[in-house]
Amino acid sequence: MRQSQLFTKTRREAPKDEVAKNAQLLIRAGYIHKEMAGVYSFLPLGLRVLNKVIQIIREEMNEIGGQEVHLTALQDPITWQTSGRWSDEANDTWFKTRLHGAELHGGGELGLANTHEEALAALMRGHITSYKDLPLYAYQFQTKFRNERRAKSGILRAREFLMKDLYSFSRTEEEFRDFYEQVAAAYLRIFKRVGLGGKTYRTFASGGSFSKYSDEFQTICPAGEDIIYLNKEKRVAVNKEVYTEEVLADLKLDRKKLKEVKAIEVGNIFPLGTKYSEALGLTYRDEVGDSRPVIMGSYGIGPGRVMGTVAEIFSDEAGLSWPQSVAPFTIHLIELPSKDAAIKQRAGELYQKFCDAGVEVLYDDRDLRAGEKFADSDLLGLPYRVVIGEKIEADGLYEVKNRASGEVNRLNEVAVLELTAK
RNA sequence: CGGGCCGUAGUGUAACGGUAGCACGAGACGUUUGGGACGUUUUAGUCCGAGUUCAAAUCUCGGCGGCCCGACCA
């Protein structure tokens, strides 16, 4: 993409009402726009990052047999009344709205979905009837609306946000547990692929009423709102909310070997048991013809929160520094101003070669001074910067700077393409 | 939801109760051109509503909005 065509602008300073590093940098670099507290729009560069994250999650979900769906944001109160979660006492994150005129079921009321256990369990009643239909796994990327008492930390805790939610439908506890572990493994692959692998720990957390524990995926980061106790060797952690002697004994963890750190909950998987299937009548006939409730599990990742976490961790004083897997573009091709028309021509040709080779490149063809272009480049944080200017020699080599390491190399065209083929 | 702090051009910041100023941005012209260059010039603001006062960005009350701490977070 030609940067002269990009409508977003960078800023020198972040708005004073943004304190969170992720929001400050993402706004300064023009990746997102704050609509109101806890509500952010994604602009072209930000959407590219978000879609990279989404695609990585999608691939891993498909890999373990997930089938992608897209449920509705508008929710029928009947379903939620049946599960007991329609009232504001039972669920205080509701945004509710109302239909025009007509007195529908709940007096014309509708809810904006804050999760989809109910909707999907109700939907599955029409598709799950026999043990032969199970197990099955469905997931989606969908906007969730939660009326948080306090939105905070930029895009890490928003009132409107995208979530990948996967739901499993199994016959037996063993079948459920087997899949649960597959998801846990897939989650670790996802966090590794987006660059958070080394800092992300599977963490024991409260299991609610259906199970002893649930598992969170916590990424070590000072901006996190959770406190966890981690064992680096075993690569496990315990959330402060269940950090008791009893739990430590149960998990065979030695308190002395645990380290207290702040972390961001980037994912959460938990057993639902038969809570929703029983409430909503989601049953199947087993091999001998008996009716049994389906065993469910729920598995969430917020792509926006993952993006915010990556921004928190992969950034420095100058700006963002994306891992290549989620960077909006791989290469930032910078053409410096010159009276020599050959510079512009050479940059344009290189841009075309990158495009032809399928390399994602942002071509800074704007009529700006070098300093501004470099500052913008550092702020945007694309993995590699290639500069074409008068200093370039006629040896066919390009100056390539690695944003993360600061390392500068002179490479030929082939080497540049290889470097970015990862 | 409890507590605290705060709302001034697009952004960031000044102004004792007394002329709303500066920087960046954006526009124009010229000189520049490998790390946010310079000159001339133009543009644009006191969140909303009451009250006190000769006079309110400034004081008081209400509303709306923002941030932080806490509680909460299937």
Give the helix/strand layout:
Layout: H1 21-28, E1 32-36, E2 39-42, H2 44-63, E3 67-69, E4 74-75, H3 77-83, E5 95-98, E6 109-112, H4 117-124, E7 136-145, E8 160-170, H5 173-193, E9 200-206, E10 213-220, E11 226-231, E12 236-239, H6 245-251, E13 259-273, H7 275-280, E14 283-285, E15 291-293, E16 295-301, H8 303-313, E17 315-316, E18 319-320, E19 331-335, H9 341-356, E20 361-364, H10 370-380, E21 384-388, E22 398-402, E23 408-411, H11 413-419
Parallel strand pairs: 3-7, 9-12, 19-20, 19-21
Antiparallel strand pairs: 1-2, 4-6, 5-6, 7-8, 8-16, 9-10, 10-13, 11-12, 11-13, 13-16, 14-15, 17-18, 21-22, 22-23
The chain binds one RNA strand of 74 nucleotides through β13 and α10.
Q: What would the keywords be for this entry?
A:
single chain, 422 residues, alpha+beta, 5-stranded mixed barrel, 5-stranded mixed β-sheet, 11 helices, 23 strands, 29% helix, elongated, RNA-binding
Structure description:
By secondary structure, the chain is of the alpha+beta class. 29% of the residues lie in helices and 29% in strands. It contains 11 helices and 23 strands. It has helices spanning 21-28, 44-63, 77-83, 117-124, 173-193, 245-251, 275-280, 303-313, 341-356, 370-380, 413-419, and strands at residues 32-36, 39-42, 67-69, 74-75, 95-98, 109-112, 136-145, 160-170, 200-206, 213-220, 226-231, 236-239, 259-273, 283-285, 291-293, 295-301, 315-316, 319-320, 331-335, 361-364, 384-388, 398-402, 408-411. The protein has a 5-stranded mixed beta barrel. A 5-stranded mixed beta sheet has the order 20-19-21-22-23, with helices on both faces. It has a 3-stranded antiparallel beta sheet with strand order 4-6-5. Strand 1 and strand 2 (39-42) form a beta hairpin. Helix 1 crosses helix 8 (303-313), helix 2 runs antiparallel to helix 5 (173-193) and helix 2 packs across helix 8 (303-313). The radius of gyration is 25 Å and the shape is elongated. It starts with 20 loop residues before the first helix and ends with a helix. The protein binds one RNA strand of 74 nucleotides through residues 9, 11-19, 36-37, 85, 90-93, 114-115, 117, 146, 148-150, 152, 157, 208-209, 225, 265, 270, 272, 298, 336-339, 368-376, 378, 387, 389-391, 399.
